[in-house]
Amino acid sequence: MAASAAPEHVERIVIENCSIATVDADDTEYASGHVVVAGNRIESVGAGRAPENPANVVRRIDGTGHLVTPGLINTHHHFYQWITRGLATDHNLFDWLVALYPTWARIDEPMVRAAAQGSLAMMARGGVTTAMDHHYVYPRGSGDLSGAIIGAARDMGVRFTLARGSMDRSVKDGGLPPDFAVETLEGALAGTEATIDAHHDASFDAMTQVAAAPCSPFSISTELLRQGAELARRKGVRMHTHGSETVEEEKFCHELFGMGPTDYFESTGWLGEDVWMAHCVHMNDSDIAAFARTGTGVAHCPSSNARLAAGIARVPDMLAAGVPVGLGVDGTASNESGELHTELRNALLINRLGAHREKALNARQALRLGTYGGAQVLGRAGQIGSLEPGKLADLVLWKLDTLAHASIADPVTALVFGAAAPVTLSLVDGRPVVEDNHLITADEDAIARATRDEARRLAQIAAGA
Fold first, then answer.
1. How far apart are CA 412 and CA 450, in angstroms?
2. What percent of the chain has pLDDT over 70?
3. Are 323 and 293 a contacting pair, CB within 8 Å?
4. CA–CA dist 442, 119 (Å, integer)
5. Are 79 and 112 in contact (CB under 8 A)?
6. What are the b/e assignments for 290-315, b being 16+ CB within 10 Å?
């Protein structure tokens, strides 16, 4: 690929002698190639050795035995759930929510910051360069939860989207959350607008963006959906929510609104190129056509869907229809591993249990879901998600010459079908975040201690309530 010129004084990192999967529009790959990073941009990608004597090279890396890919992009998560992992392990979605809402409604700022650090650390050390958190629990007097989450992402050094969530439909209104766990309509809208005003960055190389994200049909009012959409479009930010996750949700929508989830969302302004929804497991042909027609995106969360027995999303049919699809970890109370790179494998394997069987997804489609597909869903496909000159330097150098992968000839197959690959280097905005499979922007042991302590404190508070 042609080089994107950068001034000579800009510091450069050169990676060469590695396999490269660019995940560009043509799925260009190089069996042995190079990547040159200049500042926070990719300057060149191509076959063979890097150009001779590029100016101001501060680091040259021999990538023999490695594969370079775009950084992984997470499109759905709930960071706070890190401190309630391993609970309600044999529940379906509705029962799981009812069991855990009373505990979640007692979180505070120190708990949320520790949980965000744990969630971010686990993803970053596994190749995630762009993270996302859908946070929707804001107990009264709990502190600056949005600021705590955004601060944790900034300190970790990852690119980040906060989907500022909200709930205003509690048990007394026919919803699932307890009455003390929700905001008012006015409070939710005001909190969302304040978060956008304080933290959203619309620039090309933004490290922090904000989306408006009412939680789900069974925890939000129709008015919050309608006014939330109006707010988001007035502010120029994206929109996110849960949709069509379970058969129980389908039944809930028909009983309460007289229509299925997709028709309900469309009636409230919640389909469009600026919208993405988590899960979308129970979608019929008409639903998929509506998403394709409007450009609405999907965050596919295979492990969480299996953990909660929600079902298998029709990802091959969505892709065939032209629906943008990315991957999501989902909250770590329904995907305790908290890692996105395992979702590449799980997306491929679980979808092969569906109607398309072995033709459902292949290794390169799975990698695309976790990279360029995620960039599409977050509205950042022009900046991240593929290795192309001029794009932001978010990339991962995966080590594939150890016992776990050495006998698999094709590197993309090794990455997707094989065990979780070690990360030799992860760059975000041209800056190292992971080196030799360890975070360099955070103390993993300290985070582990903090999350353990906060999990115990939350359990004690919930037990005494």
1. 36
2. 99
3. no
4. 12
5. yes
6. bbbebbbbbbbbbbbbbbbebbbbbb
Which two structure tokens, joined as six digits, stand for 268?
């409230």
Strand, helix or coil for residue 147:
helix
Q: How far apart are the first and last CA of the chain?
A: 60
CB 150 within 8 A of CB 208: yes
CA–CA distance, 1 with 136 (Å, rounded to integer): 42
Alpha-carbon distance 346 to 168, whole Å?
34
Structure tokens at 11: 């510091």
Query: Which residues have a Cβ under 8 Å from the Cβ of 157 and sit 6 or more positions away?
Result: 124, 428, 429, 431, 433, 441
Q: Where are the beta strands (DSSP E) in 318-453?
A: 325-327, 395-399, 423-428, 431-435, 438-439
Q: What gap in Å lies between CA 93 and CA 7, rounded to an integer? A: 53
CB contact set of 145 (below 8 Å; sequence gap of 6+):
107, 109, 112, 135, 137, 138
Tell me if 55 sits within 8 A of 303, measured CB to CB: no
Tell me: the pLDDT tens digits for 112-129?
999 999 999 999 999 999
Q: Which among 203, 210, 238 is positioned nearest to 392, based on CA atoms?
A: 203
Degrees, nearest 5: CA angle 116-117-123: 90
Return the SS3 of 349: helix
- Output the CA torsion sign for 146, 199, 388, 273: positive
Q: Report the pLDDT value the prediction gives residue 176, as an integer from 0 to 100.
A: 83
Task: For 73, list phi and psi in degrees, rounded to 5.
Answer: -125, 120
Nearest to 410 by CA among 57, 31, 40: 31
The pair of three-digit structure tokens given for residue 29, joined into one six-digit string: 């790959």
Which pair of structure tokens corresponds to residue 201? 């960055």
Query: What per-residue confidence (pLDDT) applies to 243?
Result: 96
Residue 8 has pLDDT above 80, yes or no: no
Element housing 61 (H / E): strand 57-62
What is the chain's alpha carbon radius of gyration, rounded to the nearest angstrom? 21
Cβ partners under 8 Å of residue 284, min gap 6: 260
Q: What is the pLDDT of residues 37-69, one digit of tens each?
A: 999 999 999 999 998 888 999 999 999 999 999
Q: Where are the beta strands (DSSP E) in 244-357?
A: 275-279, 297-300, 325-327
Q: Which residues contact 403 (CB under 8 A, 6 or more apart)?
A: none
Q: Amino acid identity, residue 117?
A: Q
The answer to whether residue 4 scores a pLDDT higher than 70 is: no
Quote the CA–CA distance of 181 and 184 in Å, as a whole number.
Answer: 10
**Model pTM greater than 0.90?**
yes
Q: What is the pLDDT of residue 233?
A: 98
What residue type is 175 in one-letter code?
G
